[in-house]
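Reopening this ticket.

The earlier resolution said the output was attached, but the attachment link was broken on my side. Pasting everything inline this time so it's all in one place.
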Amino acid sequence: MLLALISDIHSNLPALRAVLEKIDELGAEKIICCGDIVGYNSFPSECFYELSKRDVESVMGNHDYAALTGDTKGFNKYAAEAIEWTRKNFDTKKLSSLPIRIEKDNMLFTHGSPRSIFEYIFPDAPTYFLESIADKERDFTVLGHTHIPMMVETKKGTYINPGSVGQPRDGDPRSSFALLDSGRKKVSFQRLEYDVEETARANRKAGLPDFLSERLYMGV
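Inline output:
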């Protein structure tokens, strides 16, 4: 099966629509999202709807959790302000159906790490550490949270992060996602330009902090 792996959409509708259109062109049979549908940007309802109408399976990210509960402990002031805006402008109860993890076909999909949706796993994480936090051997463990594409092979399986659809942080402002051929066990990473100005303009109109729009142009 050809799976499209997406994560960290963060209410960026122009980015999500561009990615979904490209996924259709590439012929993926299913899309799985590793969390953070909302936060930072101004299209939470629209992004949730786009995923729902396509039956995209998604896990809960830390921003989804914050929007649902109001708990922004550990968030910077910009992220917390965006969560407050989201809670005022989106029916966050819809996020309550998101699971912490999805397990299928010897693969795990979650947001932060196998241990917690709040834990960051960066590309330079040592393989011995990744093996220590794995709950069992799997073909693939697919994560989000860092907004940085990653693939690391370990004795307990391959860790993948498709990067971020809506707020990349690896110095490349283009949306990031990945394709996983589960039969051939091959992964390819994809980058795609989208209309950043459309997102920034909507954010400004919504009254969100300018910083959240400015960083989109830089990919940080």
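Reporter confirms the inline version is readable. Residues 2-218 form a domain with the Purple Acid Phosphatase; chain A, domain 2 fold (CATH 3.60.21.10). The chain has one domain: 2-218.
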